[in-house]
Structure prediction request, 150 residues.
Amino acid sequence: MNLRYQEDLLRVWIQMSMCIRGNRILMDMSMNEMIICSMLFKRQQEGGELLTAAELGRKTRMLKSQINKVLSNMERKNLIERVRSSGDRRKVYLHLREDQIRTYLNEHQRVMELVGFVARELGEEKLRTLTTLVDEATQAVDRFQKEEFQ
Prediction:
């Protein structure tokens, strides 16, 4: 593949990352907190078993030290609480506090406003194409990681 195209992809990837970080879309949470709240909220809405810190770390691909720091910050903000398993007292689950669901939903709405704006700017056809390409790129990154660490 032409190296110029690879450099172009890297350039736009960095630009998008800086644009998202620089525009502070979220008001009351970091992006990592938002991701975790999203996972906890979805699990709670589905009535599924709550998640542990280790499970969240695997799902978010955060390092153990990073997930612990984010969860500690979330506890300080009273976004989450830890709940001990009644069956196995060693197991601790994380729960999005009921009184903080509105905070999460407000942040989610802000992100959806951005996504909606981008969707309107691009139009339906380009949006479908972008979604497909980003999904394929994500899968390629996953394959690279698996091959790299085998």
